[in-house]
Protein: RRM domain-containing protein
Amino acid sequence: MSSEEDIAVKKSRKKEKKRKRESKEKLSKEERKKLKVGKKAEKEELLAKVPKVDEHGIAYTKLQIKRMIKRVKKGLNAVPTEEEERDRVRRLKQEEKETKDELAGMIFTREDDSGDDDSKDDDNEAVEEESDGEEKTSDNEEADEDGENEEEYETKQVQKKKPRSKPVPEDYVCFACKNSHKPLHWIYDCPDKVHKPGTNKVKKKLRGLHDPSSRKVFVSGLPFEAKSKDVEAYFEKEMKCGKVVHCKLLMFEDTKRCKGTGFLTFDTDEGAKKALKLNGTSFNIETDKKKSKKKELTLGVKKVLNRTETKKK
Structure:
């Protein structure tokens, strides 16, 4: 079934339900009671024709039994065939997809299309009137339509939000219109209020976009077993670059071992300059774990760059 056919079926079902509801309202209390008893007897009769367990002895659910009762009522077999079941599932998926499309905004395109059809009809009418020699009347009608459209647009703009239900005090002053518009209203509902959506959003702090300290350097080529104290001791005591104020090594999340890189902050600019001179030199840090064969490591010491420069790379 196509989407248009499905819509037509849904509309017919709604009309049928409405008709039944209206006919029920017209009935008296006794007639309603009789109708209820008759429905109950019919349901019990249909329920007797429906199996309670399947071929494997597993009991059917309430939903399955309800579905089977509907089938028996239509004159079909209680248990649907595999092909019928597949068709039902496919139909449900199709309906679900259509509802999702409608919720996503597809329904508005249909409304717009219907609006286009109306506009085409109006244009055709205008052409016919012109051919009859009634140009003036057609122009007036078009002007009226434009005026109506403008009014509708204005009302839509004003009625975007519902007015506040909270009562306005008598001494309240609307700073947008200075109470020139009547009746008294909150400033939020004032037509003179200037709306600037998005201006009250707080920007995120731009971390790392400032120039980093000249005393901070980036170190690479460190062994995986390296600890912060080992790196600090190497630059302070062995290389005599000065005091290391802060040492941050980048670690693997799972093993918590050093990735081989880190950041060092010295107490003076001279200390950072001395460390930069060590770039490309070979070194060995004495760690807690001593291996028989050690690979010769090449130290990399560079300036810490601005975040904007590193993002480009």
User: Anything to note?
Assistant: Residues 109-115, 134-138, 151-159 have pLDDT under 50 and may be disordered. Helices lie at 3-26, 29-49, 62-73, 82-132, 135-158, 228-238, 269-277, 307-312. The chain is about 50% helix and 10% strand.
